[in-house]
Amino acid sequence: MLRDDMNRYIELRRSAGFKLSNEAVMLRCFVALAEVHGDLYIRADRALGWAVEAASSVQRDRRLCAIRHFAQALQAEDDRHQVPPRGALGNARHRRPPPYIFSPSEITTLIEAAGGLKPVGSIRPKMFAMLFGLLAATGLRISEALALRKRNITVDGLMILQTKFQKSRLVPLHDTTRAALQLYLADRAQIAAATDALFVGINGKVPGYSGLKGVFDRLITAMGLQQVRNGSRPHIHDLRHTFAVRSLEQCRGDRTAVSRHMTALSTYLGHTNVTHTYWYLEATPVLLGQIAEAAELFYTGGDQ
């Protein structure tokens, strides 16, 4: 019974736009344990006992949160399901690591390095150069860029359809980005492929994430950026973070503009809530300096 409830719960959450990849794995592990003990309903003591077996406090907290959400959904239908108490294992909040913010010259070097990949003259170097350039210029998610089709390119920008959380949006393009895209499309038209995907390799297929990550990591290493953030290398997703942070930095000294821009940026990036966008305010010394200045003015009674 619990397994059926779990499958139904996961299917419902995914239909609402949640990937639920890690959470689904945790729920399957917990349900398997519950079945071994013959549990027909979620037991709080069983959930807590399973959660504390995790290797770290953060992982224990994630396990407990996953079970709590699952139990709350089932308890709404049958109160024999028990919801483990919040904070029963203490407060182990996971702090999101700061992103690596690329400089304009680093982005240029990355694109140029991608354009020098082999085979020379093939679609591969052109595809990677355009892909990395588009990520940096638009802040798209990697999955959104790889899902683009030629028909998604309109006179008004890129139509990003039914992506994360089932949200669609229009992403405007700068004239320079549009010009680069038109040049790439001319090369893409020479490739015979069974798909109309915008980004394809020499085999006519959309590159997989693992292959894309491998190329990115090799280029980052060649640029000497393999260990620049807490001993770890920049990630592809940091191109999106860079776009968001640089965008917010343009509003320096005008908090009203920041507020308006934050709302627009949240929509542009496809965030479900503007609070997800506020994280970028702490991403660079420039933005942190603006926050400190505003706090000091407020504390001293200065102009607000």
CATH A-level architecture of the largest domain: Orthogonal Bundle
Indicate the mean pLDDT: 85
What is the name of the CATH class of the largest domain?
Answer: Mainly Alpha
Shape descriptor: globular
Radius of gyration: 23 Å
Placed side by side, the strands forming the largest sheet appear as: 1-2-3
Number of domains: 3
Under CATH, the topology of the largest domain can be stated as: hpI Integrase, Chain A
> What structural category arises from helix and sheet content?
mainly alpha
- CATH superfamily (homologous) name of the largest domain: Intergrase catalytic core
Identify low-pLDDT runs.
Answer: none
DSSP helix count?
Answer: 13
Q: Could you estimate the helical fraction of the residues in percent?
A: 40-55%
Structure description:
- This protein is mainly α and 304 residues long.
- The protein folds into three domains: 2-75; 104-222, hpI Integrase, Chain A (Orthogonal Bundle); 238-300, no CATH class.
- It is built from 13 helices and three strands, in the order αααααααβββαααααα.
- It has helices at 2-15, 21-36, 44-51, 57-75, 104-115, 123-138, 142-146, 175-188, 209-222, 238-249, 255-269, 275-278, 285-300; strands at residues 153-154, 157-160, 169-171.
- Strands 1-2-3 form a three-stranded antiparallel β-sheet, with no helix packed on it.
- Helix 1 (2-15) runs antiparallel to helix 2, helix 6 (123-138) runs antiparallel to helix 8 (175-188) and helix 6 (123-138) packs across helix 10.
- The longest helix has 19 residues, at 57-75.
- The termini are far apart.
